[in-house]
Amino acid sequence: MANVWVVLQHREGQFPRISYEAIAAAQKLAAQTGGKAEAVLLGEGVGLAAAEVAKFDLATVHVADDPALRVYTPGAYIGALAPAIQAAAPAFVVFPHTYQTVDYMARLAQGIGAGLLPEVTGFEAGGDGLVWARPVMGGKLQAQVRVKGEGTVLVSVQSGAFPADGAVRLGETGETPVQPLSVDLSGVKPDREVLGYEEVGGDTVDLTKAEIIVAVGRGVGGADKMAPVEALAKALGAEIGASRPVIDNGWLPRDRQIGSSGQTVAPKLYVAAGISGAIQHLVGMKGSSVIVAINKDPGAPIFTVADYGIVGDLHEVLPALTEAVRAAKG
Amino acid sequence: MKIAVCIKQVPNTEARLRVSRDGRWVDEEDLPFVINESDEYALEEGLRIAEKTGGEVVVFSLGPERVKEALRKALAVGAARAVHLSDPAFAGGDALATGRALAAALARDSFDLVLTGSQSDDVGYGGTGSVIAGHLGWPHVWLVMGVELEEGNASAKVTREMESGVNEVSRVRLPAVLEVQAGINHPRYASLKGIMAAKKKEIATASPADLGLDASQIGAAGSRLEIVSVSFPESGKGAQMLEGDAKAAAAKLVEKLQKEARVL
Question: CATH number of the domain that B76 lies in?
Fold first, then answer.
């Protein structure tokens, strides 16, 4: 049976958790297809990182080691992966669903005539093949999706969907064979000249150390409508955070942003007010110990990660909550 | 510069959604539709670049008849003309099928730059712009947060958002496809004059035959993905919903936070 590949994202040989989650997903998927999972690592001088991947239960760790892969560019990554995938024709190639993956996965699929299945949260064996789950409508709905036709499918797995500790490791002495993946990038035209990286907004506010955060979303309605948020934050001794639309609208500075393009926080109490709960926000706060969600839409996805929920307008609920907190604290 | 902007019309994600009778999508009756959020930012970025360089914006959209309303709105804020990929055969496409159709439409003209939003708020595949770039053989950048033209508009310095508050800055040769992230600018509103002017602007339609495409290459027939059903996630799974008016719910919540969760 056809194998399942997993392409591991790393930064200078360090793997983010979602790369281990992708290994777990690929192993689970290989069990379904009756094949084995194989890992692919792209970079320059990634030997140590490959050794770490070799501790997992995989058929092979393929390592493409090339100076052109030191810095990520879609052209070089696609140049390395496209011929390899076409030659081996795995049933699936699993990617961690990150901003880097999305930057090149669709173009890779188009280039090699593969299927494209982004941001899955799970799969089940159905009567005639696998049925995949992925969010639609900003996470308000879940779609069940089937893949038609023949040939490799590129799949990206959403953060948190396949727990990293589900990735099966080999015993103490076991080691997956590491094989060089020969790539010829001499003919690849650089599509992007990377000039550098810059920090956004300077992170003057460190929300990661806050014990309590009151976070506000689009539902607040404007920069001039923050008073109830500030009052509750003061009563709780909390920092104020925000979801992306609030920042994009200029209602709060960028260093207050929580989510995949902002800060990742895990306070003991997180109050989400007027935040619908797009996945980009959830990945930045779902590790919080206790989550309270206040939203006028009972279907808002934020309620799926919350411990306590109140359906209502934050402009009515927050003042009432501020009063109740003040009364409780005496 | 001659700039193309691809926009999608999507249901307003703030709207109350119902699953359609066949269970495969949302019920579109009475559903308010808007221009996809990141596409609005792409349109604004296109208009700004066109104004700076003395060019024009042509706006493209694929979808049913209602899409004309989104195109008319784009014309009202300043696009010069519009192209509507209008045919039932275009419907139900995944990113590969929709990207193929849009690329064929774009290739009939000659553009210096193509802008799209980074991701649709309905199906959210996030790949259509990259697929367009692949067909055109142009560079692309996804999740663009800044565009500065350089070298007499032969290249652009492009800022791409990465995870955890870091941006990548790179130089890209033009023509290219840039997939814009929401927040890159502040989209303008249509003026009354703009709305009046839009009524006289052209919305051309393009059929699969016009684009030299076979029905098997586009829409649902040309897609590898098929949505078999949609459902609401279990709302409040694990969450205790506190009922009553604001005051009663707030009082219950504080009591829970003190006595049950012990975080106050």
Answer: 3.40.50.620
